[in-house]
UniProtKB/TrEMBL annotation, chain B:
Belongs to the binding-protein-dependent transport system permease family. CysTW subfamily. This is Putrescine/spermidine ABC transporter permease. One of its GO terms (biological process) is transmembrane transport. Keywords: Cell membrane, Membrane, Transmembrane, Transmembrane helix, Transport. It comes from the Bacteria. The keyword Protein biosynthesis does not apply. The lineage of its organism: Bacteria, Pseudomonadati, Pseudomonadota, Alphaproteobacteria, Rhodobacterales. SUPFAM superfamilies: MetI-like (SSF161098). Pfam families: BPD_transp_1.
């Protein structure tokens, strides 16, 4: 019986997303900055809005928080339309890019701020502040001021400050921007684990694709105010819907080709099926390519440069038409060292992993 | 360059060049030396002379000082004179109420500046600074036109039937207070604007996101964070209005006595320089006492700015 009830609850929560963004438009004067943005976020799901600056990701975040109103469409939380709900009544917590900690309040008073504004009794505030600080491992920092903390500690205070009010939706606006590279990757993993453990529905905004791949259950890649593709990191990486998504997430090689009779012939002689016809763009990830001695294939070029990225080697191969193709190999798979300026041929490992786009 | 170094007046490692070098090097106390000299000449020496007048009995014969002996008579006389107490109390209450009213009227303006767009900011800045471009005396005279028996205010009140006969505003405490507030308002607004316009708008957004109302944000975030500006503005307005002479003299109609007009009468009319000297000293000491209190209060409320380097 209990099992059944739990199952029902699970299907119910899947059926009704916590956050529904429905056909949201937003204009700044005559410029349209959000165009028909539609996205459902399930209970406990972490979704990243990914895109370059100016793609509308922060605008969408600010519309969810209520700092700005959408010009069309609606934003619902738990089925309730948020349009008439003012900022300070929305069940939404925002972690700001530079944290926006109150410099004149101690850590404890920063974290307890939301509770004081709601008129929570002092004894309960103290208990919940202590608990929130324990959640982010900042016990003992209660009486410090924000300026006395490191960047990583400030970020944790910012997170504790919104967690304490138990928001239904957590919004994080490029929260790792102010941290140095090393701390950033540690904090990314820590924060994802924390959010997952607490089960808070979260929206992340970032322009960093690696961060998006680390943090998210799903990624919504944005372009010019639209959501171009919303899917799991795997799908975004392996089956991008457009050359824009392929280019933005991960390293990619593009070349032009001709589709005839549902087939595209690849430069190494293999062919791949497609529904498109006429001029197409073909994309392959560098790890789906391999180098071979020149005489072994028709797709030939000269190794310009080798880049060592941890366990990977990335070869930059210059083709006769001047384009550069990137080929990645795992260090221990390398049969023998490749010299710079060596003439090589490139082969495609799995033609099914090649993407064909219309543009 | 070649001409300068070959000039006989500057060439060679003379004492003058060394001194000039030290003054211009920007190291240590040296660059401040010229202004220190000016300060000593125009402020410290006259102040010592003033004190020597206040604390001595002087005999004058045929325009010459014939004897000067140390005495506390002037000070004890002043402290036992009830006129001194009422005058200083009036000065103090006038200055404190001016400061409070300037804060009350100036704060919304500074807030509007902080949250306003480019044009709002421009207009506020122009309206705040423009009055400073004319002399305080001119601005005070303008109040004569406005507040006088046949001035704008009374004309409007009579026309609207609010009063039957012209109100007597001029030459009262109220005229002085109105003038004081108007004259000193910019001095309150400018430091407030300086502090408040540095505010990060995201702090206000964060506070609203955390559930604070507009009023809650004002009370818990904006107001406490502007404490340094309030402290500076209050100190400036208090000092200026506590020691002011022009406004009470013109708008008070010559018989409004505050500490400054009292000194003026003692020095210019009754020629009691020693009395004037003691009054000046009392004015300065009491002014400093209030400034210390303002500064202590400001420090108490801005403790958070101290930990920055820790």
């Amino acid at each position: 019986m209990m099992q059944n009830a739990a199952d029902n609850a699970a299907t119910l929560s899947q059926a009704a997303p916590v956050l529904r963004i429905g056909a949201v438009d937003k204009y700044f004067g005559a410029t349209q900055v959000l165009q028909n943005c539609t996205l459902d976020v399930g209970d406990g799901e972490i979704v990243t809005l990914l895109g370059p600056s100016g793609c509308g990701k922060t605008t969408l975040l600010r519309c969810i928080a209520g700092f700005w109103d959408a010009d069309a469409g609606r934003i619902e939380i738990d089925g309730q339309d948020m349009t008439p709900v003012p900022v300070n009544r929305r069940p939404v917590g925002v972690v700001f890019q530079s944290y926006a900690l109150f410099p004149h309040l101690t850590v404890a008073r920063n974290v307890g701020y939301a509770l004081r504004m709601r008129g929570t009794p002092a004894s309960e505030i103290e208990a919940r502040v202590t608990e929130a600080l324990r959640t982010v491992s900042l016990e003992g920092f209660e009486s410090r001021y924000p300026a006395q903390l490191s960047g990583g500690q400030q970020q944790r205070v910012a997170i504790a400050r919104v967690l304490v009010m138990q928001p239904r939706v957590l919004l994080l606006d490029e929260p790792f921007n102010a941290l140095d590279a090393k701390l950033r990757s540690t904090m990314q993993v820590e924060l994802r684990q924390l959010i997952k453990q607490l089960g808070i529905t979260s929206i992340f905004v970032t322009h960093d694709q690696e961060e998006a791949l680390t943090m998210s259950d799903r990624i919504a890649v944005m372009r010019g105010g639209r959501i171009e593709q919303a899917a799991t990191p795997d799908e975004i990486f392996d089956r991008p819907v457009s050359s824009y998504v392929a280019d933005f997430v991960g390293t990619s090689n593009f070349w032009d080709a001709q589709a005839e009779a549902g087939q595209v012939t690849l430069p190494d002689g293999q062919s791949v099926e497609t529904g498109l016809s006429g001029k197409v763009r073909v994309m392959s990830r560098p790890h789906n390519l391999r180098l071979a001695p020149e005489e072994q294939g028709p797709w030939r070029g000269v190794v310009l440069f080798q880049r060592h990225i941890g366990p990977l080697i990335e070869y930059h191969v210059e083709m006769p038409d001047g384009a550069t193709i990137k080929v990645a190999a795992i260090r221990q798979d390398r049969v023998r060292p490749v010299r710079d300026r060596a003439a090589v041929s490139i082969g495609i490992i799995d033609s099914a992993q090649v993407s064909v786009f219309a543009d | 360059m070649a001409d300068v170094t070959s000039s006989p007046a500057i060439s060679g490692p003379g004492l003058g060049e060394k001194t000039l070098d030290l003054l211009l090097s920007g190291r240590g106390i040296w660059p401040a030396v010229p202004s220190i000299i000016v300060l000593v000449v125009v402020a410290v020496i006259p102040f010592i002379l003033l004190l020597s007048l206040g604390f001595s009995d002087i005999e004058v014969a045929r325009g010459e000082i014939v004897s000067q002996t140390f005495s506390l008579n002037h000070l004890t006389n002043a402290l036992s004179d009830s006129l001194y107490w009422t005058t200083f109390k009036r000065s103090l209450s006038l200055a404190l109420s001016t400061t409070a009213l300037c804060l009350l009227f100036g704060y919304p303006v500074a807030y509007l500046f902080a949250v306003g767009g480019r044009w709002t900011r421009r207009v506020i800045l122009i309206l705040t600074i423009a009055p400073l471009l004319t002399s305080g005396i001119v601005r005070t005279y303008a109040w004569l036109v406005i507040l006088g028996g046949r001035g704008v205010v009374n004309w409007a009140f009579l026309k609207l039937g609010i009063v039957d006969s012209p109100l007597r505003i001029m030459n009262t405490h109220w005229a002085v207070l109105i003038g004081m507030v108007q004259i000193h308002l910019p001095v309150m607004i400018l430091p407030l604007v300086a502090v408040m316009s540095r505010h990060d708008n995201r702090l206000i957004e964060a506070s609203e996101n955390l559930g604070a109302s507009r009023l809650g944000t004002l009370r818990t975030i904006i107001f406490p964070m502007s404490a340094p500006g309030i402290g500076t503005g209050a100190a400036l307005v208090f000092t200026l209005s506590y020691t002011t002479f022009v406004v009470p003299q013109l708008l008070g109609g010559g018989n409004y006595l505050n500490a400054a007009t009292m000194i003026y009468e003692q020095v210019v009319f009754s020629l009691e320089w020693s009395k004037g000297s003691v009054t000046s000293l009392l004015l300065m000491v009491t002014c400093l006492a209030v400034l210390v209190m303002i500064s202590l209060a400001t420090n108490y409320f801005t403790g958070w700015t101290k930990g920055r380097d820790a």
